[in-house]
């Protein structure tokens, strides 16, 4: 696996707006995973996108993957105050070595 | 399944003391990860196991840190002796992986360690 790097480091928006976070990685991947962390809690898996997929939806989440640019984005639509959390990506290279590492994350604050 | 279970949730200890953190992974998972999270360094992977065997411990900061997985349902992370800079939240996570099936990692609630 390899570390993904999230961008921006922090994002502050109003409730109802959309939030977009980006992730970049360096080498080819098998899949890319997004996680969320509420303050003081463990990470919770949100969505996984495989290298042969370009877009995936789950509720208010939309993830895109551009393997040519080695980047992914996570879009949260119609944000709510409860979406306030840190968001992390992890890029998995594949093979039997399932080493899962994370970047520093994006801290999203949704103001009511 | 109750998920990944870590204990204790909070630990306050004096510098120089031995600290042992415990983790029970989800039954059937064959990967177990230990992470440390601080404001300065973010979420660092310390060590991970596959089928109870340590695969990569390159993230373990010093010889004071050691981890074991005596069986598929239990792992420990030990710090001896502890130092104030070890203060952090320590997470354990487990996962299940197959070549034709991608799975996510499940995290425990973490152990908040304070060394005074």
The helix content of chain A, as a percent range, equals under 10%
Strand content bin of chain B: over 45%
How big a fraction of the residues of chain A is strand? over 45%
SSE series of chain B:
EEEEEEEEEEE
Q: Roughly what is the average pLDDT of chain B, rounded to an integer?
A: 93
Biggest β-sheet description of chain A: 6 strands, mixed
Put simply, the count of helices of chain A is: 0
What characteristic shape of chain B results from the CA principal axes?
globular
Count of DSSP strands of chain B: 11
Total number of helical segments of chain B? 0
Q: What distance lies between the first and last C-alpha atoms of chain B, to the nearest angstrom?
A: 36 Å
**Span between termini of chain A:** 37 Å
Query: Unreliable stretches of chain B, pLDDT < 50, 5 or more residues?
Result: none
* Major beta-sheet overview of chain B: 7 strands, mixed
> Looking at the chains present, what oligomeric state does this protein adopt?
heterodimer
- The run of helices and strands of chain A is EEEEEEEEEEE
Share in helix of chain B: under 10%
Structure classification of chain A: mainly beta
What would your notes on this structure say?
The complex is a heterodimer of chains A (112) and B (116). Chain A has 112 residues and is mostly beta strands. Helix content of chain A is 0%, strand content 54%. Chain A has no helices and eleven strands. Chain A has strands at residues 2-3, 5-7, 10-14, 19-24, 31-37, 44-50, 55-58, 61-66, 71-76, 85-92, 106-111. In chain A, the strands form two sheets. In chain A, strands 1, 3, 5, 6, 10 and 11 form a six-stranded mixed β-sheet that branches. A five-stranded antiparallel β-sheet of chain A has the order 2-4-9-8-7, with no helix packed on it. Chain A starts with a strand and ends with a strand. The mean pLDDT of chain A is 91. Chain B is mainly beta and 116 residues long. Chain B has strands at residues 5-7, 10-13, 19-24, 31-38, 42-50, 53-56, 65-71, 74-79, 88-95, 106-107, 111-115. In chain B, strands 2, 4, 5, 6, 9, 10 and 11 form a seven-stranded mixed β-sheet that branches. Chain B has a four-stranded antiparallel β-sheet with strand order 1-3-8-7, with no helix packed on it. In chain B, strand 4 and strand 5 (42-50) form a beta hairpin. The N and C termini of chain B lie far apart (36 Å). The model of chain B has no long low-confidence stretch (mean pLDDT 93).
